[in-house]
């Protein structure tokens, strides 16, 4: 029944934020950040079991562990960048939010550099010289 | 092979499953496109993995190339022409040798039988030497006949009707000399032992008989006597 707890927490936090926002926008922002972090912490246990499942899957299929690590890193980057950019957007700083997103995208592509190199090398080697 | 294929397929399937999972977990926003690209690269990578592992090994390309060429020669007709011709020549030579050997044994049997049946001489052994000429025609080189020394008197039962037609044979060299005995060696000298006369007569008879039958010249036939005990 964690979903009820989380939804309740979210709704209460939203109401509080709406109340505070008129007087102290800064605190409203902090409240939002904390709510987000707490919901994330709630989910950590679940995320770990999902990651374990993925690891087991990868282990069974003899996939390179590098694959899995990279995929997990990519997921993590995506989540964190999304979290940060949404909070910043809520605070009304659209430009910073988009920069965070940009950073997330670039980091994800950076993760893919080894794979892209390998694929390109393979293709080039396959071509007759 | 099948094992390897199943491993590879399992890998692909599981990577795709993983990718679907990750896709579900992802936050739904602009980030998704990028993550999808990377994950699809992963899938591509897995599909290409056999090729990658092939390319990772430092191949000795010359050696590999030679191997492929050998394989091609043995499996299809696109091999190098010279190699095929070489193989053909080799096979032909083998074939010729086989044929020559077969013909030799057959002729030996036939001559042996003919001599025994029609001339009533005790033949010890017959050996025939044949060879192939340039134009693939068979050439009878020499006939060696070794007779037992206690020769019966030839009975001259030559029957022309019984003579079987045999393939054409070319020039023959006969050099008659008698083995392992000075007396017989003295064929040319004609001065020792009265037995030589008899032997010589038989030899001539055999030679003429063979010339008639096999159409060869007399200098290709060798008739010898097996040395008897007292001669040795």
Mean pLDDT of chain B: 73
C-alpha Rg of chain B (nearest Å): 39 Å
Count of individual domains of chain B: 2
Radius of gyration of chain A: 20 Å
Beta-strand portion of chain B reads 5-15%
* Parts with pLDDT < 50 across at least 5 consecutive residues of chain A: none
Sheet/helix structural class of chain B: mainly alpha
* Mean pLDDT level of chain A: 86
The main β sheet of chain B shows up as: 3 strands, mixed
Molecular shape of chain A: elongated
Count the E strands of chain A.
0
Strand order of the largest sheet of chain B: 1-2-3
User: How far is it from the N-terminal to the C-terminal residue of chain B, by CA?
Assistant: 73 Å
Shape of chain B: rod-shaped
> Largest interface, by Cβ-Cβ below 8 angstroms: which chains and how many residues each?
A-B, 34 and 32 residues
Question: What does the model show?
Answer:
The complex is a heterodimer of chains A (129) and B (232). Chain A is mostly helical. Chain A has two domains: 46 residues; 66 residues, no CATH class. In chain A, 90% of the residues lie in helices and 0% in strands. The mean pLDDT of chain A is 86. Chain B has 232 residues and is mainly alpha-helical. Chain B folds into two domains: 56 residues; 127 residues, no CATH class. The longest helix of chain B is centred in the middle third of the chain and has 39 residues. In chain B, 20% of the residues are buried. At the A-B interface, helix 2, helix 3, helix 4 and helix 5 of A face helix 1 and helix 2 of B. Chain A: This is Stage III sporulation protein AD. Chain A: InterPro entries: Spore_III_AC/AD (IPR025664), Spore_III_AD (IPR014211).
């Amino acid at each position: 029944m964690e979903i009820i707890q989380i939804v309740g927490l979210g709704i209460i936090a939203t109401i509080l934020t709406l109340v505070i926002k008129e007087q102290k926008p800064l605190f409203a922002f902090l409240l939002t950040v904390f709510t987000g972090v707490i919901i994330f912490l709630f989910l950590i246990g679940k995320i770990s079991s999902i990651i374990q499942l993925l690891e087991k899957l990868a282990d069974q299929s003899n996939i390179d562990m590098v694959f899995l690590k990279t995929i997990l890193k990519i997921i993590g980057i995506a989540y964190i960048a999304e979290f940060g950019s949404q909070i910043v957007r809520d605070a009304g700083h659209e430009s910073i939010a988009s920069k965070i997103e940009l950073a997330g995208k670039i980091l994800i592509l950076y993760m893919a550099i080894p794979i892209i190199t390998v694929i390109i090398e393979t293709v080039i080697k396959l071509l007759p010289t | 092979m099948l094992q390897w294929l199943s491993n590879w397929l399992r890998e692909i399937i599981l990577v795709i499953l993983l990718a679907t999972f990750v896709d579900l977990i992802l936050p739904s926003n602009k980030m998704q496109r990028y993550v999808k690209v990377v994950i699809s690269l992963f899938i591509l990578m897995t599909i290409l993995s056999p090729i990658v592992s092939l390319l990772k090994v430092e191949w000795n390309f010359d050696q590999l190339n030679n191997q492929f060429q050998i394989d091609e020669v043995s499996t299809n007709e696109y091999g190098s022409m010279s190699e095929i011709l070489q193989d053909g020549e080799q096979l032909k030579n083998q074939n010729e040798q086989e044929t020559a050997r077969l013909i030799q044994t057959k002729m030996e049997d036939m001559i042996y039988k003919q001599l025994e049946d029609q001339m009533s001489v005790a033949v010890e052994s017959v050996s025939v030497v044949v060879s192939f000429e340039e134009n693939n025609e068979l050439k009878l080189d020499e006939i060696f006949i070794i007779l037992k020394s206690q020769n019966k008197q030839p009975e001259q039962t030559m029957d022309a009707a019984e003579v079987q037609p045999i393939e054409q044979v070319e020039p023959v060299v006969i050099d008659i000399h008698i083995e392992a005995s000075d007396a017989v060696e003295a064929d040319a000298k004609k001065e020792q032992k009265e037995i030589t006369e008899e032997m010589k007569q038989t030899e001539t008879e055999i030679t003429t008989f063979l010339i008639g039958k096999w159409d060869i010249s007399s200098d290709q036939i060798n008739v010898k006597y097996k040395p008897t005990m007292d001669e040795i």
